[in-house]
């Protein structure tokens, strides 16, 4: 799509300033290769997901660069409140600002007077002063005006685009463009974890310890139910089995692992007849020999477990009491629990998992959790860095303060981990 960039000129010279805010009002005028179209669409989805994750994680708009000249960029018909009118209601505006933790200290504070129905988010959050049907919006809140306007325009255009797509394009392009467009809404944008990283390989002797320290809740729950019941239904076997494959469990070890559990309930002979083939098949050694990849968070969340099933996403499918108990068992503090449950109630399950990761590991995960195997990999990196810090710390003390290399190494790790691992070990 073509990005419309209104041109505006500065007061000091006649140099045109190009807007950086995309409006997407007209179709592209250039031909685009199908491969490029798909890449552009996926890149845009990545950007939108990043912005969405940051906002839902509690980031303020100014932390993800909202421009100060946003009203002029969108050419919205709003004017700043006059000084006289502003002075007459300064006390009320001050109260609103104070409630938001943003006291009016600047003499040149700017407010805009708009119909209250155009800023529903600000009204709902009590972030504006309302008087005679108008909302008085501070400069740092004007993004809500743009969001409302942009959402309105986008909704209208999407309706028209959908009509044109279904009536003229979808059938005509069913073998070329349609599969790409229809798959975008469910696209997973990260690595597929079909090959385990060297640091992520696990062996049977370590699997219980690693499950306790580095498995996400969805896999940890399946692992614990397998140990408890010595059986999982098909959905659970696939979800856990492909995850274990992705973190480095070899086919031979996988057969030993599943057989040791299932044999306790169904016997070794029945396992060999009814279950071993499915495990070899998931590793690409039977049937069509497809090398199946581990499930992404999106696929886990969208699954619908039935009675007796244990797969799916606990943040979505667990009751509140069961989820709180499971998170507490993982070591999530009561303070972090509140944040996690808030995201769950608002159906932001991946963000809830991300907050769980951060609470347990004492380290931020800015990229967000999008895949169970990503959770495992990031966890292993953090845990191994802590081990490296401990080894180097002990080495430095044995060699004395002149061991410059080790001290520099400690400092660099402290910076990368924001001090969490370093502080934990030193206290």
Structural write-up:
- The protein is mainly alpha-helical and 427 residues long.
- The longest helix is centred in the last third of the chain and has 28 residues, at 372-399.
- It is globular and about 85 Å long.
- 22% of the residues are buried.
- Helix 19 (372-399) packs antiparallel against helix 20.
- The strands form two sheets. It has a three-stranded antiparallel beta sheet with strand order 3-5-4. Strands 1-2 form a two-stranded antiparallel sheet.
- Among the domains are: 72-140, no CATH class; 198-361; 374-426.
- The chain is built from 21 helices and five strands.
- Strand 1 (7-9) and strand 2 form a beta hairpin.
State the order of secondary-structure elements, H for helix, E for strand: EEHHHHEHEEHHHHHHHHHHHHHHHH
Number of helices: 21
Average residue-wise pLDDT = 78
Radius of gyration: 27 Å
Global structural class: mainly alpha
Question: Largest beta sheet, briefly?
Answer: 3 strands, antiparallel
Approximate shape? globular
Low-confidence parts: 1-18, 413-427
What's the helical proportion of residues? 55-70%
Strand content: under 5%
Strand order of the largest sheet: 3-5-4
Distance between the termini: 55 Å
The number of E-state strands comes to 5
GO biological process, one term: DNA replication, synthesis of primer
Protein name: DNA primase large subunit C-terminal domain-containing protein
Domain DNA primase large subunit C-terminal: 208-376
Keywords: 4Fe-4S, DNA replication, DNA-binding, Iron, Iron-sulfur, Metal-binding, Primosome
């Amino acid at each position: 799509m073509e990005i419309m960039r209104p041109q505006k000129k500065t007061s000091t010279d006649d140099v045109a300033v190009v807007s950086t805010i995309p409006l997407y009002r007209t179709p592209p005028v250039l031909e685009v290769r199908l491969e490029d179209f798909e890449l552009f669409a996926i890149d845009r989805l990545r950007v939108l997901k990043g912005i969405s994750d940051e906002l839902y994680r509690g980031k303020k708009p100014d932390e993800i660069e909202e421009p100060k000249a946003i009203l002029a960029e969108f050419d919205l018909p709003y004017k700043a409140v006059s000084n006289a009118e502003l002075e007459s209601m300064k006390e009320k505006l001050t109260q609103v600002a104070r409630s938001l933790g943003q006291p009016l200290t600047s003499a040149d504070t700017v407010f805009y007077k708009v119909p209250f129905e155009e800023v529903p988010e600000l009204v709902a959050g009590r972030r504006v002063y309302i008087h005679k049907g108008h909302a008085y919006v501070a400069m740092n809140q004007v993004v809500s005006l743009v969001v409302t306007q942009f959402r309105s325009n986008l909704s209208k255009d999407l309706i028209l685009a959908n009509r044109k797509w279904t009536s003229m394009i979808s059938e005509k392009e069913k073998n070329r463009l349609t599969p790409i467009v229809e798959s975008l809404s469910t696209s997973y944008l990260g690595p597929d974890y079909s090959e385990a990283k060297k640091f992520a390989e696990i062996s049977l002797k370590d699997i219980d310890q690693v499950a306790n320290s580095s498995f996400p809740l969805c896999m940890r729950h399946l692992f614990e139910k397998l140990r408890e019941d010595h059986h999982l239904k098909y959905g659970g076997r696939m979800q856990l089995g492909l995850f274990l494959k992705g973190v480095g469990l070899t086919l031979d070890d996988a057969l030993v692992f599943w057989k040791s559990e299932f044999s306790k309930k169904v016997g070794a002979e029945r396992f060999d007849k009814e279950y071993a083939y499915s495990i070899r098949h998931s590793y690409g050694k039977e049937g069509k020999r497809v090398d199946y990849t581990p499930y992404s968070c999106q696929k886990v969340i969208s699954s619908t477990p039935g009675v007796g099933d244990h797969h799916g996403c606990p943040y979505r499918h667990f009751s509140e009491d069961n989820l709180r108990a499971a998170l507490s068992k993982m070591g999530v503090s009561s303070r972090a629990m509140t944040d996690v449950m808030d995201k769950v109630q608002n159906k932001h399950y991946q963000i809830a998992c991300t907050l769980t990761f951060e609470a347990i590991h004492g380290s931020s995960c800015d990229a967000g959790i999008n895949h169970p195997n990503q959770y495992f990999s990031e966890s292993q990196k953090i845990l191994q860095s802590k081990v490296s810090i401990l080894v180097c710390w002990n080495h430095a003390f044995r060699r004395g303060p002149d061991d410059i290399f080790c001290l520099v190494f400690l400092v660099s790790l402290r910076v990368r981990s924001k001090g969490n691992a370093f502080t934990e070990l030193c206290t």
